[in-house]
Amino acid sequence: MSLRFEPILADGVAQVSYFLCDESAGCAAVFDPRPDVDIYLQKARQYNVTITHVFETHIHADFMSGSRELEARCKGSAKIHVSVEGDATYGFAHEPVREGDEFTFGQVTIKAKHTPGHTPEHLSYLLSDTHAGEPWGIMTGDSLFVDSMGRPDLLGDEKTEELTRALYNTMREVFCKLGDEVIVYPCHAAGSACGPDIGDRMHSTIGYEKKHNPFMQLTSYDDFKKAVQENAPPVPTHYPKLKKLNAKGPKTYGHTPQVSSLSVKEFENEMKNTNTIVIDTRDMLAFGGGHIEGALNIGQRPILSVWAGWLIDMNAPILLVLPDDKELKRAVILLWRTGHTNFKGYLAGNMRAWQESGKQIKKLPQLSVHELNQNKEHYQPLDVRKDEEWQNGNIPDAAHIFLGDLPDKMNTLDNEQNLAVYCASGYRASIAASLLQKNGFQNVNSIPGSFTAWKAADLPIENKTKTLKK
Question: Where is each Rhodanese domain found (predicted)?
Fold first, then answer.
């Protein structure tokens, strides 16, 4: 088989890039690459092809583009192709792509289709056999997702109406007019905030989406506008910054960003910079048992990318505390995906080195759901889940502040109360609790298992909003 077309999922940011090649022609293209580009180079070696084209469907806001990094690693064989529709401009060398432009890769022809709405410049790419006119697939970028559509509100209120209208027209005049058999290959899977309630499947068909995608069933613009506005998830704080960075052109490294190994003394010296953020990527129970005062506990799961994006400025100096030194590369890659590259070092020997040096250790109490229920008069539960999670049930008498909003809203909390912080499973709860502790809250407890454990223990649940107890 000579034709290869493979989706590549960047977990955490739930982003899907695509590798396309024709072995007989010896050429390959990559669409919407992430910054850790080794995977594309490995595939090129695997199939004995040369990457000649790097395409972007649009200027991304949710992850750092890897186009420039991949171009640099290809050492002259590849060029970046980006949309110049909608008067889009870029701060790096590129090949302009417009509506109707075609590119051939052996057996496959790629045709650009302007599909504005998520952004003004957005392109989708139709896939067809070189000797046949009808497309068999379409890479829809962030315009059409499985069970969902791209959001039109990321460029601010002044552009939202215009982009909503454009997105509606794209849906009705482009996607709805494609054949039912055309396969849909989106740029995101479930978990991304680039669209509401994106489905779990990695791809779909136009026919399936016409029948089941609620947005594609709306024939009235007013109904479409209402649905888009009512279902939009919160806009992550890093989106506007990443969009500007991706338009300007991210820095290239030629390798995964390098991070220095620091002794305990060197680590302490770096901590003296008041802007430095210490990220402890250990499990919440390990963090709770003992950590460096002021550290944020963003555990080393794929979702680390997203919460670092939400809560940490891309320019902030970062120090890392790892579960084990060998976990360094994975942590760096996850942070790189949302634009964090200002690494000042990692603690060599992790927390074992810190504690054996006789340094101060801070604890974050872990409270079981049973302890919380049995002593509920002594604690104020704080729910940091998303609004839709909160509305589907909560621990009785809980207050609610979404984790992404916590930095701006923690001043509404009483810092003398015994706070019992929970989310769905405990991961976000530990982030929130460590953030509160870092900001001077002394009576903070994290709930392992959180609402999942609460329900499993068959404890009381309420479905109405409660205010803080005074």
Answer: 272-363, 375-463
10 Å CB burial of residue 100 (0-12, 13-18, 19+) is exposed
What is the 8-class DSSP label of residue 258?
P
Residue 18's H or E segment, with its range, is strand 15-22
Residue 272 lies in domain = 256-356
Chain segment 161-202, per-residue pLDDT in tens? 999 999 999 999 999 999 999 999 999 999 999 999 999 999
- The answer to the question of residue 466 being in a domain is no
C-alpha separations of 239 from 39, 78, 146, 154, 295 in Å: 25, 27, 22, 8, 24
Q: In Å, how far from its chain's centre is CA 330?
A: 16
Listed as own residue / partner, the contacts of 349-353 with beta carbons closer than 8 Å and 24 or more positions apart are 349/264, 349/325, 350/282, 350/321, 350/322, 350/323, 350/324, 350/325, 351/282, 351/286, 351/290, 351/291, 351/292, 351/321, 353/263, 353/264
At 268, list the tokens: 């302490």
**pLDDT for 326-378, tens place per residue?**
999 999 999 999 999 999 999 999 999 999 999 999 999 999 999 999 999 99
78 and 198, same domain (yes or no): yes
Confidence category of residue 464, pLDDT binned at 50, 70, 90: low
* Number of domain units in the chain: 3
33 Cβ partners below 8 Å, 6+ apart? 17, 40, 54, 65, 66, 67, 69, 70
Active site amino acids? 423
Rounded CA-CA distance 180/186 in Å is 16
pLDDT digit string, tens, across residues 7-42: 999 999 999 999 999 999 999 999 999 999 999 999
State whether the Cα torsion 244-250-256-262 is positive or negative.
Answer: negative
Per DSSP, 234 falls in state P
CATH number for 312: 3.40.250.10
Alpha carbons 146 and 189: distance in angstroms, whole number: 8
- Other C-beta atoms closer than 10 Å to the C-beta of 315 total 11
H or E element in which residue 20 lies = strand 15-22
| Boundary of a domain, candidates 356, 386, 408 | 356
Cα 409 → chain centroid: 23
Same domain, 264 and 238: no
Return the structure tokens found at 3: 């034709």
pLDDT category at 470 given cuts 50, 70, 90 is: very low
